[in-house]
Design goal:
The chain is mainly alpha-helical and 466 residues long. It has a domain of 315 residues: Serine Threonine Protein Phosphatase 5, Tetratricopeptide repeat (Alpha Horseshoe). It is 49% helix and 5% strand. A hairpin with a 7-residue loop joins strand 4 and strand 5.
C-alpha cells in the first residue's frame, strides 16, 4: 500500500468535503486550537505557584477525560475478543467489526483529549523554571513530577492503540505516534512526523522515571503519586518484555509503604471496581457528585432488569468461564440477566455511580508472577503471587504447579479471569504474540486504530496506518 499517496488523496478529500460541509470535519486551525488548549491564557497566567496549580488541575482534567468514562477501556475490550457487542452505536460497530476508520468517534476523542493533556503538561513544564515566588520551591518538584507522569501516561496509552506493539520490528523503528514534548503554539510544533516506537517508549520511561523520583508516596486519592509512576513503569517494561525491570517495579509497588499504608486486596469481590479509595486501587479517578467518572463503563457493561448492556461475554469467554470452578467467587461476577436472555454479562459495574479504577494491585501481582516465572525465580514464590488472588476468590492455594511453561499457563489463566472486562486483554495478547485474536494475528493492522482525521487535516507530515 502506498501510504503517502493515500494520505495525499485523503487530504484532498478533506479539502473538498470541507468546502461543501465544513461542519462535518475539523479544519486545520480548529485542530491546532484543540492542541493549543489553554495556550494563550496559560502564557499570560502562569506567573505564580497558585496559577500553576490551577493549570495542573487542568492537566488532570485532560488525563481523566482520556482515561475515564470508559475510554480507551471500552475500545480495547471491543477489540480484545472477550466481549460481544450488540449495540447500535456506529462508532462501536466500526471498532467491534474491526473496521476502524479515520472518523471513528471514540478514537478521535481519545486522540484529541490525550494530546490536549500532553500540551497542558508541556505548558506547565516550560513555565515552572520561571516561577520564583515564596511557595515555588515547596511545590515545584511535585508539580513537575505530576506533569511528567501525566505526559508519560498519555503518550504510552496512545502509542499502544495507534502503533504496532513493541517487537513488531527487531529494533522497534516502526512508526509510533507524534512525540510532543514541547508546547505547541499556533502551527509551531504541531505538524511533526511520528516518532518510532523505540523513541516513544524511551521518552515515556524517562518521564515516568523522573516523575517517580520527584513525587511523594503518601496516599493521594484522585491524584498521581510515586506508586502510580512505579506501576506504570511495571506496565511499560512488561509490555516490552523486559522481565527484570517489570519484576522490579511491580515488586516496588506491592511492597510500597505509603506513610504506613500498604496496598491490600479488597475483601469484597463485588466492589473491586466500585469502591472509592479502595485499598487495592493504585490509580483511581474519583466520583464527584457532578461527574460520574465511570459512566461510560457502567453504560456499556451494566445490565438491569430494565435492559441489557451493549457489552456481554463472547462465546469464547463463556467457554473459558465453563472451565472455572463454581466455587471461584469471580465466576459469579458473570451471569445471565434473566431466564430469557442467553448472554452472560459482567456484574463488576453493578452500580449507578462509581470511580474509575485505572490500575489495581492484582495487576502488579500478576506482572510480578509472570516476570518471576520468566526469570526462573523459585516456583513457590511465583505461585504465592497468583495464589493471593485464588485464595481471595475462595479457592485453595495451588501448591503443585511447577516449571516455567506450567506456571505461565496458570498465571495467564488467572490474569484472564481476574482482569476480564477491564481493557487488559488486547494489549496482553499482542504482547505474547497470540496467533488468534478474533481471527487476527497479533500484528494485524485491523487491531490498530487509524490516525484520525483531526490530525491528518492539520499535520501534512503525519504517516498513516494502512
Amino acid at each position: 500500500m502506498n501510504i503517502q499517496r493515500n494520505k495525499s488523496i485523503f487530504q484532498r478529500f478533506i479539502i473538498a468535503v470541507g468546502i461543501v460541509a465544513t461542519s462535518t470535519l475539523w479544519s486545520c486551525s480548529s485542530v491546532l486550537d484543540v492542541r493549543n488548549e489553554g495556550q494563550l491564557s496559560n502564557d499570560a497566567a502562569l506567573v505564580s505557584t497558585a496559577a500553576v496549580e490551577v493549570a495542573v488541575n487542568g492537566a488532570y482534567e485532560s488525563l481523566w477525560s482520556t482515561l475515564g468514562a470508559g475510554n480507551p477501556w471500552t475500545t480495547l475490550d471491543a477489540l480484545g475478543g472477550d466481549v460481544y457487542y450488540e449495540g447500535s452505536d456506529f462508532g462501536f460497530l466500526e471498532i467491534y467489526n474491526l473496521n476502524m476508520s479515520l472518523f471513528t468517534p471514540n478514537n478521535r476523542g481519545l486522540w484529541t483529549t490525550g494530546y490536549e493533556g500532553i500540551n497542558r503538561a508541556n505548558n506547565i513544564l516550560e513555565a515552572l523554571p520561571k516561577i520564583n515566588d515564596v511557595t515555588a520551591a515547596a511545590n515545584r518538584n511535585r508539580q513537575r513530577g505530576e506533569c511528567l507522569l501525566i505526559r508519560g501516561i498519555l503518550h504510552f496509552e496512545l502509542v499502544r492503540l495507534w502503533a504496532q506493539p513493541w517487537g513488531f520490528t527487531a529494533d522497534n523503528s516502526h512508526p509510533g505516534i507524534p512525540l510532543r514534548i514541547s508546547s505547541t503554539q499556533g502551527a509551531a510544533g504541531a505538524a511533526i512526523p511520528r516518532s518510532t516506537v523505540a523513541q516513544v517508549y524511551a521518552q515515556v520511561i524517562a518521564d515516568l522515571t523522573e516523575a517517580e523520583s520527584l513525587l511523594g508516596d503518601a496516599p493521594t486519592y484522585d491524584r498521581v503519586y510515586k506508586s502510580v509512576a512505579s506501576a506504570y513503569l511495571a506496565r511499560v517494561y512488561f509490555q516490552q518484555g523486559n522481565h527484570q525491570q517489570a519484576y522490579n517495579f511491580a515488586d516496588k509497588v506491592i511492597k510500597a509503604n505509603r506513610s504506613g499504608v500498604r496496598f491490600a486486596l479488597n475483601s469484597d469481590l463485588t466492589t473491586i471496581l466500585t469502591t472509592p479509595n479502595s485499598p487495592e486501587a493504585i490509580m483511581q479517578i474519583a466520583q464527584p457528585e457532578q461527574y460520574n467518572s465511570s459512566a461510560g463503563l457502567i453504560g456499556m457493561y451494566r445490565s438491569t432488569r430494565y435492559g441489557a448492556a451493549p457489552f456481554s461475554s463472547s462465546d469464547d469467554f463463556q467457554a473459558f468461564l465453563s472451565t472455572i470452578p463454581n466455587n471461584d467467587a469471580r465466576k459469579a461476577l458473570y451471569r445471565q440477566r434473566n431466564g430469557f436472555d442467553p448472554r452472560v454479562y459482567s456484574y463488576k459495574f453493578d452500580i449507578t455511580v462509581a470511580p474509575t479504577t485505572i490500575i489495581r494491585l492484582p495487576e502488579m501481582l500478576l506482572i510480578r508472577a509472570e516476570a518471576g516465572a520468566e526469570l526462573a525465580r523459585p516456583d513457590a514464590e511465583v505461585r504465592a503471587d497468583y495464589n493471593a488472588l485464588r485464595v481471595r476468590a475462595g479457592l485453595s492455594a495451588d501448591n503443585s504447579t511447577t516449571g516455567k511453561d506450567n506456571l505461565l499457563a496458570a498465571i495467564r489463566r488467572e490474569r484472564r479471569l481476574e482482569l476480564a472486562f477491564e481493557g487488559d486483554r488486547l494489549h496482553y495478547l499482542r504482547r505474547i504474540r497470540a496467533t488468534n485474536i478474533r481471527g487476527q494475528a497479533w500484528n494485524s493492522w485491523r487491531l490498530i486504530a487509524k490516525i484520525p482525521d483531526v490530525e491528518i487535516s492539520g499535520n501534512p507530515n503525519i504517516e498513516l496506518n494502512p
